Amino acid sequence: MRGPLVLVGFSGGVDSSVAAALLQEQGYRVRGVMLDLWRESEGCQTDPENCPAAVAARVAEKLGIEFELRDWREEFRRRIVDDFTAAYARGLTPNPCVRCNSEIKFAALLRLAGEYGASFVASGHYVRRLAAGGEIELHRGEPRKDQTYFLWRLARQNLPRILFPLGELSKNEVRDMAARLGLASADRAESQNVCFIPGSLREFLAPRLETKPGPLVDLESGEVIGEHAGAAFYTVGQRKGLGLWKSHLERYVVEVRPQSNEVVVGPRRAVMHGGLEAGELNLLTENLPQEVEAVVRYRARPVRARILELDEKNGRLALAFAKPQFAVTPGQSVALYRGTRLLGGAVIERALTAQR
Length: 356
Hints:
Strand order of the largest sheet: 12-15-14-13-16-17
Structural class: alpha/beta
Helix content: 10-25%
Shape: globular
Number of helices: 6
Distance between the termini: 59 Å
Order of helices and strands: EHEHEHHEEEEHHEEEEEEEEEE
CATH architecture of the largest domain: 3-Layer(aba) Sandwich
Largest sheet: 6 strands, antiparallel, barrel
Oligomer: single chain
CATH superfamily of the largest domain: HUPs
CATH topology of the largest domain: Rossmann fold
Number of domains: 3
């Protein structure tokens, strides 16, 4: 008997390749689809054999599954790249991968699943998917590779249709399986950067934003103590490359003010924050507890936090941390947990200096 059809999002990497192989082993019918998002950064012109799409096609052939490449570049540019650039122009520090997962990758897979009559979609994220009490829950995967932080924007109603085959595996186990199967992606290097920024962030932003040097203003004295290269290039908590005239000072970016082209700097205690206010709230549970663990950037340690305000209708949230956190940054995501379970998240709008 043929199993249900699963549409697997291919990237040309080892994780999505092994996810497809595991689903096959579990009896699913698998079809691979890769979204062509930003071809310029992938080296496809200079090394076409190692282009992610070419590698993904070879993996699909090895597994004996159908595969296609879909052009999603215009939507990706408009919804992710343009939004990313505009956020920096407003003095924010966005996380494009969080938005891309919900608005591009899984949105596209679910839309295409409707075309093919697929029952499920799947990806190579390191996330555990559990069924409990009538709900589908997302839990942290292997600690060194857990990617739940990037998935808080997923719509709760879509969780029953999304599979994460790698949830119980480590990266080494995934690579070993790919090697045993002889998959072309087995030895591919892991991407460390934002997919559309092959070089430095400044190199990417400079031709896209109107920037000019401006004053570095000391938070405590109000004095101008240096010159920055362009307000959009700086982020809260940054210490290096500030352009201080008084080199003995230890200063961190406290605030970016693009309207006046000022960057405000201050001592470390000025970027220790007692809580936050956030918008674009998305919950993956019906009932959010009064106390949660909050993660304010990828790889940050969870901190106990108390819900101060919760406005689901308008997508707003305020938290107070059990202990101050370093550089809570507007534009970044706060992901909410209870133990290993991802409860949801929001986009940080403002750090609260003192605990309430």
